[in-house]
Amino acid sequence: MFVHIVEDDPGVGDSLALLLAQIGHESRVYPDAESFFECHPPDAEDTVIVDLGLPGLSGMQVVRWLSGLKTPPKVIAITGQPSRAIAEVVDGHLPAILLRKPLTEESLVSHL
Questions:
Q1: Conformation bin of residue 76: beta by default, left when phi > 0, alpha when psi is -120 to 50
Q2: Each residue of 58-104: pLDDT tens digit?
Q3: Is 47 within 8 Å of 3 (Cβ atoms)?
Q4: Peptide bond preceding 55: is omega within 30 degrees of 0, i.e. cis?
Q5: pTM to 2 decimals?
Q6: How far apart are the C-alpha atoms of 104 and 4, rounded to whole Å?
Q7: H helices present in the chain, as ranges
Protein backbone atom coordinates (compact mmCIF):
# COMPACT_ATOMS: atom_id res chain seq x y z
CA MET A 1 0.00 0.00 0.00
CA PHE A 2 1.21 3.49 -0.87
CA VAL A 3 0.14 6.41 1.33
CA HIS A 4 -0.38 9.90 -0.07
CA ILE A 5 -0.15 12.61 2.61
CA VAL A 6 -1.74 15.96 1.75
CA GLU A 7 -0.61 18.22 4.59
CA ASP A 8 0.51 21.86 4.52
CA ASP A 9 2.46 21.71 7.81
CA PRO A 10 5.91 20.35 6.86
CA GLY A 11 6.53 19.04 10.39
CA VAL A 12 3.31 17.04 10.43
CA GLY A 13 3.86 15.73 6.89
CA ASP A 14 7.44 14.65 7.67
CA SER A 15 6.40 13.03 10.95
CA LEU A 16 3.66 11.04 9.23
CA ALA A 17 6.02 9.94 6.45
CA LEU A 18 8.61 8.83 9.03
CA LEU A 19 6.03 6.89 11.03
CA LEU A 20 4.71 5.20 7.90
CA ALA A 21 8.23 4.24 6.80
CA GLN A 22 8.89 2.71 10.23
CA ILE A 23 5.88 0.43 9.83
CA GLY A 24 6.74 -0.52 6.25
CA HIS A 25 4.67 1.83 4.07
CA GLU A 26 5.92 4.01 1.23
CA SER A 27 4.54 7.52 1.20
CA ARG A 28 4.73 10.90 -0.47
CA VAL A 29 3.92 14.26 1.07
CA TYR A 30 2.11 16.96 -0.90
CA PRO A 31 2.06 20.49 0.60
CA ASP A 32 -1.35 21.33 -0.84
CA ALA A 33 -4.28 19.96 -2.83
CA GLU A 34 -3.09 21.54 -6.04
CA SER A 35 0.20 19.59 -6.06
CA PHE A 36 -1.67 16.40 -5.19
CA PHE A 37 -4.05 16.91 -8.14
CA GLU A 38 -1.08 17.36 -10.50
CA CYS A 39 -0.04 13.74 -9.93
CA HIS A 40 -1.58 10.49 -11.11
CA PRO A 41 -4.74 9.65 -9.11
CA PRO A 42 -4.18 7.16 -6.28
CA ASP A 43 -4.94 3.49 -6.80
CA ALA A 44 -7.79 1.76 -4.99
CA GLU A 45 -5.23 -0.05 -2.79
CA ASP A 46 -3.68 3.26 -1.67
CA THR A 47 -4.55 5.40 1.30
CA VAL A 48 -4.79 9.19 1.28
CA ILE A 49 -4.29 11.13 4.49
CA VAL A 50 -5.62 14.65 3.96
CA ASP A 51 -5.67 17.65 6.27
CA LEU A 52 -9.09 19.30 6.15
CA GLY A 53 -7.54 22.73 6.82
CA LEU A 54 -5.44 23.07 3.69
CA PRO A 55 -4.82 26.51 2.20
CA GLY A 56 -6.20 27.09 -1.30
CA LEU A 57 -8.32 24.10 -2.32
CA SER A 58 -9.65 22.62 0.90
CA GLY A 59 -9.10 19.17 2.28
CA MET A 60 -12.84 18.57 1.98
CA GLN A 61 -12.60 19.28 -1.76
CA VAL A 62 -9.91 16.59 -1.94
CA VAL A 63 -12.13 14.16 -0.02
CA ARG A 64 -15.07 14.81 -2.35
CA TRP A 65 -12.90 14.39 -5.46
CA LEU A 66 -11.47 11.11 -4.17
CA SER A 67 -14.92 9.74 -3.36
CA GLY A 68 -15.95 10.42 -6.96
CA LEU A 69 -13.20 8.25 -8.45
CA LYS A 70 -14.27 5.02 -10.13
CA THR A 71 -12.16 3.04 -7.64
CA PRO A 72 -11.55 5.39 -4.69
CA PRO A 73 -8.71 4.82 -2.23
CA LYS A 74 -9.14 4.73 1.53
CA VAL A 75 -9.30 8.29 2.84
CA ILE A 76 -8.26 9.40 6.31
CA ALA A 77 -9.14 13.02 7.03
CA ILE A 78 -7.19 14.76 9.78
CA THR A 79 -7.74 18.09 11.47
CA GLY A 80 -6.67 20.17 14.42
CA GLN A 81 -9.83 22.28 14.27
CA PRO A 82 -12.39 22.43 17.09
CA SER A 83 -15.66 20.55 16.64
CA ARG A 84 -17.64 23.65 15.62
CA ALA A 85 -15.16 24.48 12.84
CA ILE A 86 -15.16 20.86 11.65
CA ALA A 87 -18.95 20.92 11.37
CA GLU A 88 -18.74 24.03 9.17
CA VAL A 89 -16.00 22.58 6.95
CA VAL A 90 -17.66 19.21 6.33
CA ASP A 91 -21.13 20.73 5.90
CA GLY A 92 -22.90 17.56 7.04
CA HIS A 93 -20.71 15.20 4.99
CA LEU A 94 -18.30 13.70 7.50
CA PRO A 95 -15.51 11.64 5.99
CA ALA A 96 -15.68 7.95 6.96
CA ILE A 97 -12.45 8.26 8.93
CA LEU A 98 -11.78 11.55 10.73
CA LEU A 99 -8.89 11.80 13.18
CA ARG A 100 -8.06 14.75 15.41
CA LYS A 101 -4.56 16.20 15.74
CA PRO A 102 -2.35 15.57 17.49
CA LEU A 103 -2.43 12.10 16.00
CA THR A 104 -1.27 9.06 17.90
CA GLU A 105 0.47 6.17 16.24
CA GLU A 106 -2.22 3.80 17.50
CA SER A 107 -5.11 5.83 16.10
CA LEU A 108 -3.50 6.16 12.69
CA VAL A 109 -2.22 2.59 12.36
CA SER A 110 -5.59 1.13 13.32
CA HIS A 111 -7.10 2.74 10.18
CA LEU A 112 -4.43 1.74 7.66
A1: beta
A2: 999 999 999 999 999 999 999 988 777 777 777 767 788 999 999 99
A3: yes
A4: no
A5: 0.93
A6: 18
A7: 10-22, 33-37, 59-67, 83-90, 105-109
